[in-house]
Amino acid sequence: MTVSDTTAPTQFGQALRRLYFIRFAFAAAWAALMLATAGAQGPVLTALLVVYPLFDAAAVLWQLRSRHRAPGAPQAAEWVNVVVSVAVAVALGWASTASPATALAVWGVWAVGSGIPQLVAAVRQWRSGGQVPQILSGGISVLAGGAFLAQGLQGSGDIAGVGGYAAVGGVFFLISAIRLSILLRKKAS
């Protein structure tokens, strides 16, 4: 193992830790706004629904472009996540003007479509540390997405549940960030 072999995972772990703290803060703020405006429709709902997957795409894109990422690391799952998230942001922009039930169904498709790559990426990044919460989060995203899709297809207009979904996802990012902090301290000592 060379010096670069040992420092690259640590630097990538530090970058992931920062990203996970940012993603937690964003998810918590977004969830609070979503729950506070649960009955809102129109531009407020559209803006909230569009910004979340765009932020997700930006965060994953940042992770892909991190200079600390191991060269040659698999990237297909992350690129799928970016493309799906951007496409869903556009679809949510349209769906939120059609009906909350349509938006809920689209959100469900996105949760499944982004949960699977999150799960795959977390398994592949296992060596970076702190990935168990991301594996759990990806799995829960797939299950919750299926439930949102079913509710939307049944005509449910209760879109407030996506705020809870984001809050839970944020907690998983916080746990991953804390776990990475612990692992990085152990490596430093």
Automatic annotation (TrEMBL):
Organism, scientific name: Nocardiopsis mangrovi
Membrane spanning residue stretches: 20-38, 44-64, 76-95, 101-123, 135-153, 159-184
Protein name, as recorded: Integral membrane protein
Keywords: Membrane, Transmembrane, Transmembrane helix
